[in-house]
Amino acid sequence: MKDPADRIDFANLPAPGDSIVVTFFITVRKVARSRDFYSRVLGGTLVMDENPCMVKLANSWIIMNPGGPPTPDKPGISVVNYQPGDTTSIFLNLRVADVRARYEEWRAKGAEFVTPPIDRGAEIRCYMRDPDGYLIEVGQSTGLLHGELAAKLAEDLPG
Hints:
CATH class of the largest domain: Alpha Beta
Number of domains: 2
Strand content: 25-35%
Order of helices and strands: HEHEEEEHEEEE
Radius of gyration: 18 Å
CATH superfamily of the largest domain: 2,3-Dihydroxybiphenyl 1,2-Dioxygenase, domain 1
Structural class: alpha+beta
CATH topology of the largest domain: 2,3-Dihydroxybiphenyl 1,2-Dioxygenase, domain 1
Shape: globular
Number of helices: 3
CATH architecture of the largest domain: Roll
Largest sheet: 5 strands, mixed
């Protein structure tokens, strides 16, 4: 077994002194595949390789582990794999300075995008999926920086 000092980047652990740090936990099917995506493709810093895997991405952390059965601290609750499809209720939102440049860079590294970046007035955005199918929005504030709100498009409205 590896010495924890060899496995953990202690300087980048999400461990606040007296405040709160928000991290994002995702259940993954293959830790190595997700670790590669969030570190190599998106450029995150590997903090811990597994159990759980932690990647620091800019000023946030993605924590990844396989699902599992109930535990004493969450009795009756199982952590299950995400079932990718055409619906979602939660997604990661990455704000970038140049969405078109990131789109080209990450696509060249193997990221799979739903569409190229689309100008929505307040922002330019596109979506991609990680290896487990989680939706990730990649957006650049443009008009929003000058008080322009996103246009309501007919295809965005219910019905």
